[in-house]
Design a protein that fits this description.
Layout: E1 5-11, E2 15-16, H1 28-43, E3 52-56, H2 68-75, E4 84-87, H3 93-107, E5 112-120, H4 138-144, H5 152-162, H6 167-186, H7 212-215, H8 225-230, E6 247-256, H9 258-263, E7 270-279, H10 289-300, E8 309-312, H11 317-327, H12 340-343, H13 347-365, E9 369-376, E10 380-388
Parallel strand pairs: 3-4, 3-5, 8-9
Antiparallel strand pairs: 1-6, 1-7, 2-6, 5-6, 7-10, 9-10
Helix pairs in contact: 1-2, 3-13, 5-11
Length: 389
Amino acid sequence: MRDAVIVEAVRTPVGKGRPGGALAGVHPVDLLAHSLRELVERTGVDPALVDDVIGGVVSQVGEQGGNITRRAALAAGFPDSVPATSIDRQCGSSQQAVHFAAQGVMSGAYDFAIAAGVESMSRVPMGASVAGAADIDGVALAERYPEGLIDQGYSAELIAARWGITRGEMDGFAIGSHDKADAATRAGAFDAELAPLAGLTHDEGIRTGSTLEKLATLQPAFYNEQMAARFPQIEWNVTAASASQISDGSAAIMVTTSDMAAKLGLAPLARVHSFAVAGADPLYMLTAVMPATEKVLARAGLSISDIDNFEVSEAFAPVVLAWAKETGADLSRVNVRGGAIALGHPLGASGARLMTTLVHTLKDTGGRYGLQTMCEGGGMANATILERL
């Protein structure tokens, strides 16, 4: 079977996803086009050779509707002959794009594919694609879950309660995310993966100087009397500090075979070793990272101790902390350059953002294996193992 290798991975800096954020003035089409254009410029690959561009985007409405990936590819100057599609697996959309790209390359359907992602949350707010819908569940789903499914913030609180994660642990993890991101930025660790845009040269959401005492003054972000009555086990400890940031950004990854890379004189950065996707209880919603990790490790024939670097989506601090407790992963190897709590979480772009960071981290540290996993709305998760080449 053919292999699938990553020859380049780039991303924009992540901007604050609100009016006045550094990237708020950039149309989502241009936001994604910037990463696509930078990707082909860095590789020197003629975009006419690209068999498909697969882009993750969650809120596919308004400026992000109408197959934004195709419009971004055209905006990036790709030939008319290059097709593109937009996919939605919630927060893991662009990680799923990598899976689809790798599967296409390995099967022989593609020789070159680009996996990408974008989200401009300042211009297309989270939930915009279902806003105004009187009923998004229908009859059968409502019958299966008569009490109703819940928002992710409540799921994060349920996870904290079930795995016994304290407020102090969450706040300490959040401070650590910012400290690691700040140190990586100051050391230039992100420089090779960043494609500055609109004057933004670094991730905008990183904060320094926080303390446990300061974070202890923050109020719970999701407390609700009705939910408190429904879930008396919740202690209401998740705050804005222990949740990911609303953000703008894009990322793009070039996938091909090692043979094609050699023909063009490209040096592969990593091989897409194994991948998996899993589902779990949609009420807890964010726990599928656990079975997805188990599944991908089994498929790869590896153990958790074989992994040199992990990128685990910091949707909420308790998700990563519960995942580490369940899997036995060494937290000192997890998100070593910070995560979404500090760097931000531009939904559709986050999967490709994490993978871009993972590829470059493996290259810089000399690690062999990297594992990425992301929790996703609806109780799903993707997991990918990369092998540095």
